[in-house]
User: Fold this.
Amino acid sequence: QVHLVESGGGLVQAGGSLRLSCAASGSIFSSNAMGWYRQAPGKQRELVAGITRRGMTNYADSVKGRFTISRDNTKNTVYLQMNNLKPEDTAVYYCKAEGWSDWGQGTQVTVSS
Assistant:
């Protein structure tokens, strides 16, 4: 079982920024790729960004150039820096470790127009 705790969400105006954090169980963090996902009301959960254990990244087309995923293996934490936020970014954001089915409680991001 993997324990994940997301934080950093909130209400922000369009064009603003937020930084999300996800603290993960120490026993798995350094050996697993990590991903940030989001789920908007009435929509399926989707992958927003991923990062391998060595730091290679990938992004959904909708967030390329605006979001940056990073990780600190010494702190067992993965981050999502979100800039130039848009109302369509409104969702609950979750992190997940590759190969594990566990999810955290998520953190709500709301972007007002």
About this structure: The chain has one helix and ten strands. The CA atoms of residues 47 and 58 lie 10 Å apart. The two ends are 39 Å apart (CA to CA). The mean pLDDT is 94.
